Amino acid sequence: MKKENYQPIENYGIIGNMRSAALVGTDASIDWFCFPHFDSPSIFAKILDSNIGGYFSIQPVTDYKTKQFYWPDTNVLITRFLTPDGIVEVSDFMPVGSQITDEKDYRIIRKVKGIHGRVKMKMECFPAFNYGRDRHEVNISERGVAFISEDLIMGLSSSLPLNREGDRACVEFFLEQDGSAVFVLHKIQGSEICQVKSDIHGIETSLHDTILFWRNWISRSHYKGRWREMVHRSALILKLLTFEPTGAIVAAITCSLPEEIGGERNWDYRYTWIRDAAFTVYAFMRLGFTQEASAFMAWVRDRLSECSKEEPLQIMYGIDGRHELKEEALDHLEGYMKSGPVRIGNGAYDQLQLDIYGELMDSIYLFNKYALPISYNGWKKVTRIVDWVVENWRLKDEGIWEMRSGQQHFVYSKLMCWVALDRAIRLSLKRSFPGDLAKWIRARDEIYMDIMENGWSEERQAFIQYYGSSSLDASNLMMPLVFFIAPTDPMMIKTLDATLCSPHKGGLVSNSLVYRYNSTESPDGLMGDEGTFNICTFWLVEALTRAGKANPEKLEEARLMFEQMLGYANHLGIYSEQIGIHGESLGNTPQAFTHLALISAAFNLDRTLG
Q: How far is the first Cα of the chain from the last one, in angstroms, to the nearest whole number?
């Protein structure tokens, strides 16, 4: 297939129900959907193979232009088609809240409405079960279509009679002003015909309830600052990335969207990274969403209960808490724009990444401070991981970026070990919890001096990526954000100045866009290059913001950089992982890491500006 058959990654919006989610293109084609959960096999995966991946499209038969937007303060997505014959709107959503009782309620509802004129439309539904590996039969009935595969049967109910074309269902129809058609994708059992009634009144009620759910949820936000719309959109996206049954938070809803077109940097992000989720908890608490933070903390308690004092936490888990995330390549799929291999599972799950303890302890500390006091039993679990950090912080690891080039003494990993001990000490003193404070303080101070002596390069006049290297790493921008060093400390200012240089001058910044590291100077064990890393740009904004309290020029630079970065979101305010050389989105989408960093940067920049 030609690359032209693929939509740009930035053309997609997201709908979901906190169990799974779907990507809807600006052409109203659903090109990614896993059922019943985020990490289940896909039913639609055209985004990974435009020929056999599967899709669910609703489009005018004639030429058209489109506009796409969310119903205000919701995750209900509207795609508006502008044609020579008139205007048609497609409203896409998944019922949420009290509308969900079991998997039969995990529905995609698509309402098509005529606005002006008389427009001929075509609906086509082509499921490709189990990443396109399982064949299926098509059974037409009066109330819809049943797509029958070996392990799953999906029904497509409609207010229109549907036709069969091979292994897909389709229908052509005209829509006049105020006319409507409805399509509902849902699970069915055995040989049942489609059970979901597609009557307009029922769909309108479900749409109303879904809109009300999202509006009520976002109304709890405490943020009233300058960038309310973008912050709230980020919060709504983060909510969609939560797995409500367990409280877990996925890094993104997709797998194997490439960090470089044609490259091999294609990973599965449909799991819960301790790091990403801990940062997300921070973002939720900043906005006042303590319920989501509490749910994730309950999930964390379960993970802590599974490991002993001698065992480290895994860096990531399945959303159901499972430990093994075996990585495999799906060679029958060509990959987005022929960027193979397509990978499911993630082989990095058993890497050692010491930084996760700092991010986790910081979120526990903040949760205790701003949400609910942790229990004594919770504290006992905390002390186990703190004691593990005391004994193991000197180890080499793969680092925050999951290097596949061998372990090193990464500065960021040491930094977050310092954070783990520092927050545990603060929490112990604040709550008068018992703990070996003398040992913890001694280890914390040892880590501090170790970083200062081995993590600083006199040659580069900056903190470096790992001990003995001469390369920079954007993760060191977190140093003032976690209160390891004052944002105005000369060492931090010099690190900022070095980072702000362009890559060909040894820095990491290209016109406000930040690379996470220089892969030429510091090989990561993979072929090819990658784009700028969105979270790193927001980290730089926040580091400049804090330095800007004493230097108005740096504060102004932070605001300009933040405003520029907002312009790289797609038309719906969504970010993937990276930005390519042409300004295109790269990597899995939407990415929690990026949106939580946007919230944090906006919060602190707004407060500093006053």
A: 53
Q: Which residues contact 473 (CB under 8 A, 6 or more apart)?
A: 410, 411, 412, 464, 465, 466, 516, 517, 522
The CA–CA distances, whole Å, from 244 to 20, 38, 222 equal 10, 11, 22
List residues bridging with 397 in a β-sheet. 408
Residues in the chain: 610
pLDDT value for 153? 94
Cα separation, 504 vs 520, in Å, equals 11
φ, ψ of residue 55 in degrees (nearest 5) = -160, 170
* pLDDT at 30 (0 to 100): 98
Q: What is the DSSP letter of 71?
A: P
| CA atoms of 323 and 310, how far apart (whole Å) | 17
Distance between CA atoms of residues 458 and 461, nearest Å: 5
Angle at alpha carbon of residue 520, lines to 514 and 521, rounded to 5°: 90
Contacts of residue 202, defined as CB under 8 A and 6 or more positions apart, other chains included, come to none
3-class DSSP state of 120:
strand
Amino acid at 195: Q
Q: Please tell me the distance from the alpha carbon of residue 395 to that of residue 408, in angstroms, as a whole number.
A: 8
CA distances from 309 to 274, 302, 377, 380, 389 (A): 18, 15, 15, 11, 10
Query: Which residue stretches of the chain have pLDDT < 50?
Result: 1
Closest CA relative to residue 532, chosen from 507, 562, 560, 509:
509
Strand-pair category, 21-25 with 12-16: antiparallel
Assess contact for 165 and 147: CB atoms under 8 A.
no
pLDDT at position 280 is 85
CA dihedral 573, 574, 578, 580 (to 10 degrees): -60
| pLDDT at position 527 | 65
Question: What are residue 355's phi and psi, to 5 degrees?
Answer: -65, -25
Contact 266, 258 (CB under 8 A): yes
Question: How many angstroms separate the CA atoms of 372 and 451, rounded?
Answer: 33
Tokens of 544: 């400049």
